[in-house]
Amino acid sequence: MTGYTRADTADNIANGKAANADDLDAEFNAIQTAFNSSTGHTHDGSAANGAPITKVGPAQDIIVGTTTLLPKTDNTVDLGSTTFEFKDLWIDGTANIDSLVADTADINAGTIDATVIGATTPAAGSFTTVASSGGITGNVTGNITSSGTSTFATVDINGGAVDGTTIGATVPAAATFTTVNAATVTSAIVTSAATITGGTINGASIGATTPSSGSFTTVAASGGITGNLTGNVTGAVTGNASTATTLQTARTIALSGDVVGSVSFDGSANVSISTAIQANSVALGTDTTGDYVAGVGGTTNQITVTSSGGEGSTPTLSLPSSVILPGSLQTTTDIIVGGNLTVNGTTTTINSNTVNIGDNTIVLNADETGTPSQDAGIEIERGTSANVSWLWDETNDRWSAGTQSIYSGGGFIGNLTGNTSGVHTGDVTGNVSGNAGTATKLATARTLSLSGDATGSVSFDGSANADIVVTVADNSHAHTIANITDLQTSLDAKQPLDADLTALAGLASNGIIARTGAGTVVARTITAGSGISITNGDGVAGNPTISATGGITLLGTITTTSGASQTLSGLTLTDYKFLKLVYKGVSPNGVANFYIDTTACFVIVSNNANNLIRGIINLDLSDGTYAANLAVLAGASSAASAPYSGKTGITTASTSVTVGLSAGAFDAGSIEVYGVK
To answer: Is residue 524 located within the same domain as residue 619?
Structure first.
């Protein structure tokens, strides 16, 4: 492996060779160093390190190059998901994206080509410059520079200038301006006040509709001047003056024809002509102008008219008792129908969300007069889900909900045909066909009776189990062994009566039975010895239970990986009778004997270096004596014949236990110290 150097240069870790702990420890340290998170091997391509990792993923889905980061297969790998999103994306270059969906977009440079912005859901946007070949729809805030034609429903221009543009060239319309600088104005100009400081006004009547005063430096009129003229008149005045103080000669103004009258008038004052209309001289529509009504007529089933003609008549308009509208009727307020409402169309649509009907019966399919053939009922529109309905099925003469289930929080009354599911509560009235999966009980309790040689009875309604007390009549039947299947075979296989069975039958005591001899049995009881308690010793009340009255407790562990001796301190041994020292893979780093306590009481086991010692030493705390049972599990060793038992100074008064070596130091394993009560 790259970055890993074998520490076992002597090749001690091999089949048939003795590998010591130092070899293994050094090898494991080398592996640990190679995988160190900060100083271990890397895959950066440098010497003694791994080659660069260019493919990652469970199937090597991502390929990393010097200048590229590519998926192994086109259009298969997602970057993030709807649940786990990356934060910011920084790209110094061009982003080629087939489709872009963004919550918000802030584009500070470049162009957006061949794209409709806001096509599905328009929203506000801020742009420095917008160039559109197909037009811009909606409100625009900011300056607009257009090289083509711009069409606006309304325009409110509060500043700037409109240059080189004809306003209203195709379809003129009214406009309001503060100041208009125009070489040519087509159509009418309406203004509350106008000051014209130069140029000419050609082919125009000033004050033609509503005359008003005006001030002119020079007025040249080829067709005359109408209205008051204030100021000097230079040049010849021809034609008729529209006003004068009086007429030179008074004139008589007379009316004749249908209306007669006259007055003398010279213009010095207003005059009034007293007129008289000649009888039957005015014919409406002939001698009059304006609108008038010659007669009023009605329309059948729509409008009824009475007294429709004649001078001085008063027509009366009313609705007939039956009104037929030739077209649609639409109202913006409520309609109240005092009588019956009949709709003869094919479809009646009600768009209100709440329909209140006072009638207690709704009749559907009311135009059916013969044998019914059409299903009728109610269908519910459910949008994107399938509609559901409640129909009267004419084919089967029954109500149907189609494939939908029917739920009732109350009860069901009437005949029920078909399978049902769920919990059924309440009484069922009428015949029930088919099988009920379960029933609480029978409506009427029944008596189950036995008759003949065996008699008995019980009342049973299914609400609970029932037992029949059976009485077999005396001398009512007879049995022979041959008539009972396998009875003789079973009897033949039984233990024959002997002295042991006779003795067992004669035993009057209870408890555990022991056979003490041929034809002799006695009752026994298990009794407790020292440190043992017995429960149910005779086995009568249950199985006998044997328990130790004391207990064993782990007092601590002595680690034997260094030093010539190790001590477990802080012990309280007054409550214990024995100590158990469990040696678990204890090893010296040289040839040495083991000992316990500081009294040079040796457990004489001569060990070569790196031997692993396992076993138990039992120590009696009453006098400090011990017995050892140790074994060498690895390496060569020689064991002396004694002493494997002896005496130490460790008693119930001691507060520590010390173990050690006669030479060298520990280099492996541990010793567990247990107290036994």
So the answer is: no
Residues 6+ apart with CB under 8 A from 605: 593, 594, 613, 630, 632, 637, 639, 640
- Rounded-to-integer distance, Cα 263 and Cα 240, Å: 23
The answer to whether the CB of 534 falls within 8 A of the CB of 545 is yes
Structural domain includes residue 614: yes
- Asked if residue 561 and residue 662 are part of one domain, the reply reads yes
User: Does a structural domain hold residue 15?
Assistant: yes
Q: How many domains does the chain have?
A: 3
Q: Hey, which bits of 312-382 come out as E strands?
A: 316-318, 376-380
Highest mean pLDDT among 165-179, 421-435, 515-529, 585-599: 515-529
How would you label 88-107 residue by residue, b for 16+ Cβ within 10 Å and e otherwise?
eeeeeeeeeeeeeeeeeeee
Does any domain span residue 107? no
580 close to 674: Cβ distance less than 8 angstroms: yes
CATH of the domain at 599: 2.60.120
Whether the CB-CB separation of 612 and 585 falls below 8 Å is answered with yes
pLDDT band for position 639 (cuts 50, 70, 90):
very low
Is 282:294 a contact under the CB 8 Å cutoff?
no
Among 422, 448, 450, 446, smallest CA distance to 436 is for 422
> Is 546 a residue whose pLDDT tops 80?
no
Parent domain of 609: 550-676
pLDDT of residue 449: 92
Coil vs helix vs strand at 447 = strand
Query: Is residue 48 a part of any domain in this protein?
Result: no
| Co-location of 632 and 557 in the same domain | yes
Q: Which two tokens stand for residue 89?
A: 């994306």
pLDDT for the residue 48: 61
* Residues 25, 28, 34: CA angle, nearest 5 degrees: 140
Q: Hey, how many other C-beta atoms are within 10 angstroms of the C-beta on 173?
A: 7
Residues whose CB is less than 8 angstroms from the CB of residue 596 and which lie 6 or more positions away in sequence, other chains included: 581, 603, 617, 619, 626, 648, 650, 657, 658, 659, 660
- In total, the chain counts a number of residues equal to 677
Q: Are residues 580 and 500 in the same domain?
A: no
